[in-house]
Write a structure and sequence with these properties.
By secondary structure, the chain is mainly α. The protein is 64% helix and 0% strand. The protein contains seven helices and no strands. The radius of gyration is 14 Å and the shape is elongated. It starts with a helix and ends with a helix.
């Protein structure tokens, strides 16, 4: 709980975003990430895409934060918008 309070000192963030994830997702963010910016990005993506804890862990371990937009794809032309965004980020 202490680590959680230190990682997210802003009560507004906790109530709005972090409250949408199960406790073990938050523990994963605390254990595997060191900066507030990294935690915020993965937290938002986990909520947005409904990642399971194992999917969240895999995204962190494969450094999803560093990957967006790097590979050239045809996702935008061959998939619906929501699916192309998710495919590009995965």
């Amino acid at each position: 709980m202490r680590s959680f309070a230190e990682a997210w000192p802003d009560a507004e963030i906790v109530q709005q975003v972090a409250a949408r994830l199960p406790w073990f997702h938050l523990c994963t963010l605390l254990d595997k990430l060191r900066t507030q910016d990294e935690r915020a990005w993965y937290l938002a993506k986990a909520v947005e895409h409904g990642w399971s804890q194992s999917a969240l862990t895999m995204q962190i371990e494969t450094r999803a934060l560093e990957r967006p937009g790097r590979a050239m794809t045809n996702f935008e032309t061959s998939l619906p918008p929501l699916q192309s965004d998710f495919a590009r980020e995965s």
